[in-house]
């Protein structure tokens, strides 16, 4: 029986954000936007969805009078990402057979 | 990147692989720190070499430059930390390694400055002193202030330590090779005169920090320009 792919992660931009954050301690909004080539508006919406799901932690602060948003993956997010990758592997193994 | 929910499993794998690679390959270090230290330490070592070898003095202790370089280094560190970007898991550990290196270097400076006078006093309390004796009898014996022979060799070895840790952890080959070369320079310095040790120290600072720093700076600027052009 296949595990269902997590709908929160099975989205191009949200998956890209989580894949970026899985390998680093934390990253700021500008860095994520540069790496994903997303628009600021779209990225904000998707980051909020990940935050609402408890997959990432978002810290908003000010740096030299400019807002600085930092994102960090949570243990729940790591667990969900791990489960998503395992489910993906299942799908791909069947595809090969 | 648009938010399309209709992605295939294969596309998912591609996104994951590509993003992990992008995070890994991001150079958030500007390279200014290693360039600054590499330049200052190699300059001070080289000037010390020239002074010792040709017996002249520039009128002040050139190593004070290293002390003054701490101020811009603090400013660079604070600015780089504030600039955000990305923080990797190993960053805190490497910061600690460099902090310990700084403390060790400071302790070594204290040791080098304290040992001669303290040793002179201690042996004087015991009622004896060190003398320089010319085996060919060409000059009369003269009192000798205790010193640690080939002391700069220890510095060369110390330069290599945090550099090798950083190079291996960051998988940054220029620093790894620079550190390994410094260990070789350390071994060579054990067999050379003090002024030649200074020259080897200048080379060590160049290969450990200055050259890797310049290469890092190039990569950082190339990446920055690529991000601007996207």
Structural descriptors:
heterodimer, A: 97 residues, alpha+beta, Arc Repressor Mutant, subunit A, 3-stranded antiparallel sheet, 4 helices, elongated, B: 230 residues, mainly alpha, two-stranded antiparallel ribbon, 8 helices, 3 strands, 71% helix, 3% strand
Strand order of the biggest β-sheet of chain A:
1-3-2
Tell me roughly what share of residues is in helical segments of chain A. Answer: 55-70%
Measured as a percent range, the helix fraction of chain B is over 70%
CATH architecture identity of chain A:
Orthogonal Bundle
Compute the gyration radius of chain A: what is it?
15 Å
Low-confidence stretches of chain B: none
What overall form of chain A do the CA principal axes indicate?
A: elongated
- CATH topology title of chain A: Arc Repressor Mutant, subunit A
Strands of chain A, total number: 3
Report how far apart the termini of chain B are. Answer: 12 Å
**Helix count from the secondary structure assignment of chain A:** 4
User: What string, H for helix and E for strand, traces the elements of chain A in order?
Assistant: HEHHEEH
Tell me what you see in this structure.
The complex is a heterodimer of chains A (97) and B (230). Chain A has helices at residues 12-22, 29-36, 40-52, 75-96; strands spanning 26-28, 56-63, 66-73. Chain A has 97 residues and is α+β, with helices and mostly antiparallel strands. Chain A has a single domain, classed as Arc Repressor Mutant, subunit A. Chain A is elongated, with a radius of gyration of 15 Å. The model of chain A has no long low-confidence stretch (mean pLDDT 89). Chain B has helices spanning 9-24, 32-54, 64-68, 70-82, 90-125, 152-169, 173-189, 194-229; strands at 86-87, 131-132, 142-143. Chain B has a two-stranded antiparallel sheet with strand order 2-3. Chain B starts with 8 loop residues before the first helix and ends with a helix. Chain A binds chain B through residues 5, 7, 10-16, 19-20, 22-28, 30-31, 34-38, 42, 45-46, 63-64, 68, 70, 84-85, 88, 91-92, 95, and chain B through 1-5, 7, 9-13, 15-16, 18-20, 22-24, 26, 82-89, 91-92, 227, 230.
